[in-house]
Specification:
Elements lengths: L7 H11 L2 H8 L3 H15 L4 E4 L2 E4 L1 H25 L7 E7 L1 H6 L1 H11 L3 E7 L3 H5 L5 E6 L6 E16 H6 L10 E4 L7 H9 L7 E2 L2 H9 L4 E5 H5 L4 E3 L8 E9 L6 H21 L4
Helix pairs in contact: 1-2, 1-3, 1-4, 2-3
Protein name: HTH-type transcriptional regulator GltC
Keywords: DNA-binding, Transcription, Transcription regulation
InterPro entries: LysR-type_TF_proteobact-type, LysR_HTH_N, LysR_subst-bd, WH-like_DNA-bd_sf, WH_DNA-bd_sf
Length: 295
Amino acid sequence: MHRIRWDDLQYVHAVADQGSLSAASRVLGVNHATVLRRIALLEAASEVKLFDRRNDGYRLRPEGRALLASLKLMDHASARIRRSLTSTSKGIEGTFRLATTDAIACLLLPGYLAALREVHPNINIEIAVSNDPIDLSLSGAEILIRPGTELPPELSGAKAGSVEFRAFGASGYLERNRDLTISEHKWLGVAPDFAKSTVGEWQLSSVGTRFEFSADSFLMLAALAAQGLGLALLPAFVGQKTDQLVPFGTIGGEPETGIWVATHKDFRQQRNIEALLGFFTSALAADTKQLNVIT
């Protein structure tokens, strides 16, 4: 009989997130049959039907959401055990896990990692990417680089700088719609799950909440804006680094947020972790002076 294991979480989460077995199998790097078998075994072991099979894909049932939440708690406990074991390690060699958002991972991190390799050639970094603050905190990573107004209580770290947000659009879109008022423009918004974020609250007060397209990723919003589908409020560095996008101009009241380098409190005072915290904090602090320059 199949026993529920902590790594079952990745199969449930992948199918729930991707909406199909084939898409989940690509994300997980396994074949379609493996995902189907693991989900079927988990449903049999838990005696819970996790998904509704529809023509348009798989949809997580309420019972499935409850089990997914329980599995995440188990995974969190496992991460705490791993952190405790890691805390006894010495030296600066080894493999470390870093969690951050997709925009930071794709647009900022590669340059930092190239510099890190020169300073610490025997360190290996595993990169976990998520735009969900809760997922970042539960990732089991030793180093977290995340935006936000403050750190949650289980984390300890430093604010490396601030990131400003600005509206960007494709030059063709702006030319076609140069006479529109702010409210008349088509806006690309953050997904409903991020309604209480800094950008979500700005959207609510400034442009409303009805969007033809929304996403939980600033890289995705930037790509949509680059296709001329509307304006997007983006971190300035995302808009600046996206081809075809130009600044819309100052609207007024655009938000900014902090960017933090942190670790779990379990890891503090370890020489290797402190070295990594210091490196990434310094790199971001130097970079943020340029991140918010609009040209």
